[in-house]
Amino acid sequence: MMSRTEEDFELELRSLAGVLNVGLTHRENGDVDVVTLVVNTKDSAGTQNVASQIASLYYPEAKVVVDGTSHLLSLQRESGSRVAFVRADYDSKDGTCEVQLTIDGRVGLGRAGSGPLIGGAEATLAALRDLGYDIPFSLLTVTNVTNGRDWPVVVTLRSNANDGDRFGIAKADDDMVSAAKATLDSLNRFISTASER
Amino acid sequence: MMPEGNDGLQPETPTNTVTETDGAIEEFPGQVYEPWLFQTMLGELTNRELGVGFIYSILGQFARRHGLTDVVVTLSHDSFGTQIFRLGGQSVTAELAVRLSAEPGVYCEPDKVPAVECDAVRTACQLAMSLHLARFSATHDPLTNIANRRSFDDALEMAAARSARYGWAFTLVLVDLNDFKRVNDLSGHEVGDNTLRQFGFALRQAVRQGDTAARVGGDEFAVILSNVEGHEAAGFTERLRSRLLASNVFIDFTTGTATSPRDSADPAELLRIADGRLYEKKGLRGS
To answer: Do residue B14 and residue A172 have CB atoms under 8 angstroms apart?
Structure first.
């Protein structure tokens, strides 16, 4: 079982700006031997320096290796694009949500009633359809994880073809934005596939 | 482990259907959910909290359950950006990371696992990462990554209670940076923040395992030295100075100490005594 110290060590490394992946190899006595970081930052040397400092506190003998991806990621951004959330507004007078999305300079706008939580998800689906996507899913549930503020919202979409539900999770400043982002989260892979068709 | 030229990892396809029904729960009409993940999560939660270790454990059990040799989960969230976890804590290459970071989800050998299960695993992992980060953020200062005021207060209460009950001595050291305002005024807040970060790091290096180092104010730090009497705290001060010099951090500091149970066994009183001694020294220094 991973020790609490090692969990906190890995979390601290993952909290560094641009760190995507942390790999650890161990010595026979269980101590960390080599730490491999995959980072998306222009300052790989800076990240290695800070990561080495952190490692020296937990495992003084550990060696830190950094593998940079920034050059690869910029290439990827040029070759593909994703739907991005722009804004969400809620009209408390009539309980209407309006969500705006964008992809490749195109803008999609969706509106829905049902309050900020369910309305945020419904308006996002409407905005995706406004962008021209055929979304073969319908909204099944929108749940605030603890029924309290500042907690993630989980969205479940039911496939119209009955071939598996999709889940999305997101946390933002308010329930409406969380619901919108969770809806996008649940559809990320689908949208990516759809845009390749 | 994986075929050459192909990492063997493919995203789950949304067209997979859930067909296994043995021991399954019918959650919604026409939709079947495997209870293994929920049972596994409950089992794991008796041994550990939701966090990084939990994610690796879930990936391991997911892989065993489906006979997978490799599995990766990519998570994406405002609070932690994109994070990639691979079975057994293995690293991924930069090229693979770029492909995997494009879309959040579970990546494993194709057509082996229902998409709904992949989504459930990803959601569980995302929750575990978020909660671990939230727990860490709640108890640590974001700039220096040492304990924050809240967890320092808890640690001081606990140390005082132990001291009162068992007579174990500990020394509280309050540390205040000298002329830190000048650093901010003359060199800017970015340099000031970096100085605080480096100071916090030196503090972490200077304390022993079992001691507590915390940032309790803008340029105020506090340390709880376990099993240390007042005069022995000088060793800590010397260690801190030498760490700062070794890191080329040229800022001086003033300390004030109070020892339990000799000075008091009450945490508030200890803080008051240490604070008084600190400002006494500061006054002398100023004059």
So the answer is: no
CB proximity list for B75: less than 8 A, separation 6 or greater = B82, B83, B84, B85, B104, B122, B125, B126, B129
For chain B, what's the residue count? 287
Q: Kindly report, residue by residue over B24-51, the tens digit of the pLDDT.
A: 444 444 445 567 777 777 777 777 778 8
Residue B32 sits at the chain A interface (C-beta within 8 Å): no
Q: What ipTM goes with this model?
A: 0.78
Any alpha helices (H) in chain B, and if so which ranges?
Answer: 36-47, 52-66, 94-101, 115-139, 149-166, 180-187, 189-206, 233-246, 267-286
Residue contact B94–A69, C-beta within 8 A: yes
Top-level class of domain A80-196:
alpha beta
Q: Write down the CATH number for the domain with range B149-286.
A: 3.30.70.270
Q: Which of A134, A162, A32 is nearest to B15 (CA)?
A: A162
For A68-110, what is each residue's pLDDT tens digit? 876 665 544 444 567 888 889 998 888 899 998 887 667 788 9
CA distance B181 to chain A (A): 25
Task: Tell me which chain B residues have a C-beta less than 8 angstroms from the C-beta of A173.
Answer: none
pLDDT tens sequence across B247-276: 888 899 999 999 999 999 999 999 999 999
> What confidence category does residue B201 fall into, taking pLDDT thresholds of 50, 70 and 90?
very high
- Which residue type is seen at B223? V
Q: Which fold does the domain A4-75 belong to in CATH?
A: Alpha-Beta Plaits (3.30.70)
CB contact under 8 A, B17 and A192: no
